Amino acid sequence: MNKVELIGRLTRDPEVRYTQTNNTLVASFSLAVNRRFVRQGEERQADFINIVAWSKLGEFCSKYFKKGQQVAIVGRIQTRTWDDDQGQKHYVTEVVAEEAYFAEGRRDAEAGGSFDNAFGSMPVGGDSDFETTSNDDLPF
Q1: Class of the 4-36+43-124 domain?
Q2: What are the φ/ψ torsions at residue 57 (nearest 5 degrees)?
Q3: CB-based contacts of 97: which residues, under 8 Å, 6+ apart?
Q4: What integer pLDDT is reported at residue 104 of this predicted model?
Q5: Using alpha carbons only, how large is the chain's radius of gyration in Å?
Q6: On the CB side of 16, how many CA atoms lie within 13 Å of its CA?
Q7: What is the mean pLDDT of each run of 10 residues along the chain (140 residues)?
Q8: How far apart are the two ends of the chain, measured CA to CA in Å?
Q9: pTM of the model
């Protein structure tokens, strides 16, 4: 089974291209995903994962996802190779998105500020401070 689930922050706005053969939209971006554990005396490490979203999902990502925003991606890992003009072989590994979600509330996104300010503040787990004071805060 080839399935990956990621939650991270966009390192840049999604970039949109169209295929030459059938003019299909493809959006590409990368996520900064915090590693789960921190070694004592070291800062938290992150992996920067390349994401590709096709067609309608790519259109959604390009329209609503912005740099610094926390999102969740469900997809599959894909590797591909190609030869450049000089005949040199290139390899790339990326996640092909099959589902994409907002992973923070609208208020959190508006207050989050820039990627540089928000990157280190991703929650790692533990007790939640979630509290609902009115039904307006509920998503349903």
Answers
A1: mainly beta
A2: -65, -40
A3: 51, 52, 53, 54, 57, 58, 61, 73, 74, 75
A4: 85
A5: 17
A6: 15
A7: 97 96 96 91 92 97 96 97 94 97 76 44 38 46
A8: 33
A9: 0.72
